[in-house]
Amino acid sequence: MTAIPLWVRRPAGERVGWLRTVDHKAIGVLYIGMGVAFFAVGGLEALLLRAQLATPEAGLVDPETFNQAFTVHGVTMILLAVVPLLVGFANYMVPLMIGAPDVAFPRLNALSFWLSLVGGVVLYFSFLAGGAPDTGWFSYAPLSERAFAPGTGVDYYILGLAVNGAGTIIGAINLSVTILLMRCPGMAISRVPLFVWMTLVTSVLILGAYPALTAALVMLLVDRQLSGHFFDPAGGGQAVLWQHLFWFFGHPEVYIMVLPAMGMISEVIPVFSRKPIFGYGFVAGSSVAIAFLSFGVWAHHMFAVGLGDTENAIFSATSMLIAIPTGVKIFNWIATMIGGRLRMTTAMLFAVGFIAMFVIGGLSGVSLAVVPIDLAVTDSYYVVAHLHYVLFGGTMLGIFAGAYYWFPKMTGRLLSERLGRWHFWLTFAGFNLTFLPQHWLGAVGMPRRVFTYAASTGWGPLNLISTIGAAILAIAMVVFFVNLVRSLRSGEIAGDDPWDAFTLEWSTTSPPPPENFATIPAVTGRRPLWDRKHPEARDKS
Amino acid sequence: MRPPADAIGTLALIVGVIASLIFIGVEAALVYAIWRYRASRNLAGQPATFERNRRLEIAWTAAPALILAAVFVLTLGTMAEINGAGVAPAMRIAATGHQWWWEFGYGGTKTANELHVPVNTPIDLDLTSVDVIHSFWVPELGPKMDMLPGTTNHLRVLARRAGSYEGQCAEFCGVEHAWMRIRVVAQSQAEFDSWLAAQAVPAVTQGGDGERVFFLSNICVNCHTVRGTAAAGTAGPDLTHVASRATIGAGVLPNDVARMRAWLADPQRYKPGSLMPRVPLSDADLDALAAYLGALK
Ligand code: HEM
Ligand SMILES: [Cu+2]
Ligand SMILES: [Cu+2]
Hints:
The complex is a heterodimer. By secondary structure, chain A is mainly alpha-helical. Chain A is 65% helix and 0% strand. Chain A has one domain (23-537): Up-down Bundle (Cytochrome C Oxidase, Chain A). Chain B is of the alpha+beta class. The longest helix of chain B is centred in the N-terminal third of the chain and has 34 residues, at 4-37. The complex binds protoporphyrin IX containing FE and copper (II) ion (2 copies). One copper (II) ion (CU) binds next to loops of chain B.
């Protein structure tokens, strides 16, 4: 057994700890570590919610605790787990994939990470300061105004999200400049790996969306601390204004979370199908269409607010429109597999799982764009099911695919395929058991965000199934953690290119040296490593 | 006019069938690809190298676009229909959300948590809120609609079946959001008319012990109205005919004298966080008070 591999090799003699590092790979690992830790915390919160809901009229937790738990669970999963995980992989991989020695602004990169983390710490500090926010992750006014939320929880929510968001905005600037200016010779923008492209599109989305959130948060802070009236109807303000600002951020945020995961599986599927991606231009172009459209669909979260039929019809139309570029990517991935030679590794299993589950989330999403159906099921468990099919069935499965794919590059060791299979199948079973029944629960009348439900409703059995599913999911996550820890210490040595892959990160050592590449590579196509390995069958593009 | 719930049901059925077909098609293609092109089966064959097909891509973009265009047209039709489609409502009822109970107003006659409507009659609810945002949702009646402070929204309801319907607030509105349940009672026009007439009658002063406790130290009367008496508080539900309702506390307890006594002894035990405080009362006072309220039929 060899020694534990170092994730980041440092130049001899120089000692740079995790706290002071500005190496994009080390910062990527920090981001991923943050994401994993908060994912575990958010998962425990979810288990608490599911335990309380397992039976009707249960008294495991009091209503106040439950309300804090679902609020913090939502914020944690979205802003402190999924986004850092995606940004972490982007941080680590983008410079390697474009043949660059680092990101454009390494110090700024460190600042982004630490701001993101401090934002999370501030949010969690609320537990010690008298109670966490309890108004839901979108914290609608006037419930979030001081009159109805007199504690400090919402203030910590505001500060935490604002600081975390500043980190994310800075990170997006950094990544987009890196992708635009630091590509190696020969790597035209039309040749970047799709994960890089998705990161670029996502960065632009972040720059458009997060400032709206920051503005809304500051206005809410003014309302709460300086007796302002932005969102207070009693003082001449507009409660609905908060919703417009929040969802102007919130909907693009959905794509901020899903596009990079789509980028990940767009790397994984071709490599394990032994074929180039089908319709590169189409996948890349449709993502740009999504980015534009995603700023024009926010009011589909507000169909029941009473904006009027005309507004609702317009936002229904834009929402259906955005389903097209989102949905057809699925055909591209399947067409990539067709005619290939599929190696069903764990990474590939998760990528295929993404497709299989994202279809369900996408179709339920379209049904929610149909205004009358939305009016029936919005704010119910149907939406909880929908959002988890997108965020867990989609994004998280994509992240797992990326993790199994890139772990060897980052650590020099392979994750165990045997545990990986257990991880996949337990996740697949647990996930569907948890969230599939919730479609029915919502359709028959169970609202979201309820700490309990009357026994007379008959919602008990499906809720119990859902909770059992959550327990299986928890076991799956334990298997994953065990796999991570064991493989880190004694996993099979990976070598530079264990998957016989296509892109530049696999042309350097695992883990890569501080400067990434001994010499900056030059490329002539979209699959530089393939070209190098098969000079007789070079890609033409 | 068709009940909005039926119109939505038809649309949901159509969308559901389309979605199911797409779901089956995509999953089948995926499973086929995995099975047909797995490496162990495809050992000898070299992977294909095609990487685009313009026509195919245009086709699979156009097909969903056409399907969605059709769905959108159906959407517009149903949107108009569930709003009443030009049919004037036979009556309007004011529905107001309060942290964690409902107020219903039939002209000057107010009641709480239980909405009575004549069956098979188009009715518009005028929805608003006095505090935070709530959302009126009775699944069997179809769509929900938010209740916003400072604004009035309208919701068309039409109950086709006589009997009771269950629903509850759908917009998170604070600590007791889960126990903000609605009961809708649909009855024949004649039954409805006599119910409404009974609700409109003010209470008569009884002069008993319970009534004395009710007015004691101006506690209950500060928050509750009993029409016909000096009690005119508005922070809590109108109690003029509280005994005629099926539940207490927007659904937390069935309504009978024993449960009423338990609720009065400590509302926070059944609905922690509710805006009705625990008022310390002697056992004798509780008995009398419960009997008094139980008589407010
Ligand atoms: C580990 C498996 C998970 C389980 C068992 C779970 C369970 C739950 C439950 C029970 C709720 C509360 C629903 C309600 O009361 O309305 C909820 C809400 C939510 N979850 Fe999860 N969840 C999981 C993973 C995730 C992930 C991975 C994400 C995001 C990437 C996520 C995002 C959300 C969001 C945004 C909400 C809404 C919070 C709110 O209403 O304010 N969850 N989840
Ligand atoms: Cu959205
Ligand atoms: Cu509510």
